[in-house]
Amino acid sequence: MTANKPGTAHGDIFVAPFSADQMVGQTGALVNDNSGDPVWFRPLPSTNLQNADFKVQTYYDGRGGRGQPVLTWWQGTLALPPAYTNLPAGAPEPGGCYYIYDSHYRLLKTVFAHHGYYPDEHEFTLTRRGTALFIASRPVPMDLTPYGGPKNGAIENSEIQEVDLATGRLLYSWNALDHIDPADSEEAASSASSSGGVWDAFHINSVDEGPDGRLLISARNMWAIYDVTKKSGKVRYQIGGKKSDFTFGPNADFYWQHDARFRPGNRISMFDDGCCDLPDGAPEQRSHGLILSLDFRSHRATAVKTYYHQPPLESPTQGNTQALSNGNEFIGWGQSPYYSEYAGAGNTEGNASRNLLYDAKLPGSDISYRAFRNKWIGTPYYPPSAAARSDAGHNVVYASWNGSTQTAAWQVLAGSGPGSLSVVVRHAPRSGFETAVTTPEPGPYFKVRALDAKGRVIGDSRVVKLSG
């Protein structure tokens, strides 16, 4: 942590660490508290396997119920050189899927894409209709010579798909090639030579559904955001890119953007990656969170709030801007290994430390595609863990419960046999992911009990034997 001030929103922090370079630790889905301590970690067996878009959502069964809080994420492998060069960098490899886990950390649903497309790491959103809305991708063979690419090439196409969670049936799809001209791409078709002949013309990286049946779709490599009528599939208007329907006020233009979201009052938010390969004459930009106001009479976009980092960051890829319930904004810095929280008023590039409330950095070159702050209550179906060892003439009992958000303290039980244990420490406050409790009791058998804030027992570990 580099900042932790009063005023942050309630909730824990959700990241999915991975690295395109040398991974520190393990890839997986990770919940941290404000102090940086783990709350829950689900490690993956290989650093070539990744999670993305890890967050809390509400799962509805489609029958009008209240819904239940769940954890969701994408899991699969990404085309990251040097391990994978058959697709554009960052594209999903075949074999991925989406997971939905309940508050006891049990698998509820596994979701797959249709039409031969691969589940894409960029977006997985649950709706109140009992459906999932997500992005799916695959290479579509195409002669790319009209665009300056190879004749026997392909376009990495994207579909917006919606499936019924109860049946897995495809309910809706929207295809980028049907509605966007690849000639408008800011990614040169010649780049296909380094990715197996596949051109990443669009790079759709977010979709948000508005209350009136519209979709807000971000295409990173078009430098554009599209407002789409869901029923007809037609683009209502385009913001940014070569055929923008809007002009831009000061600091309102954006490049290589991610995470476009509807906001109240004709506003949208995004993470403006900003940096790298900008158009001739464009001033150098730093990555930042950005909220735009759209004037539909003048067709002009105005920057109303910005969120910069100190020190300045340049994130070529990834990132998100999350609206929090108390009016704050949470920024995941994508390819830069930070995540931050700001008071809602934000800041400017020249005063980037203003309104910063929380800031943390992942180790080494580890990054997270997005980062979120979410409220979460986890009650694991599995028991707490315990270990006991002799240390400098004392016995130390270690207690932890991966994913438990209700554990406030621990009891320690000891005895000469596994069936004759009694309480020897009645209340040891939880002191992080793992709590160490020193006791003069010889054991050699021990176990721990998790206590909630009212002192009630909420979980018992297995019996363990003292080790040297």
TrEMBL record:
Short name of one Pfam family: Arylsulfotran_2
Family annotation (InterPro entries): Arylsulfate_ST, ASST-like
Domain of life: Bacteria
Protein name: Arylsulfotransferase family protein
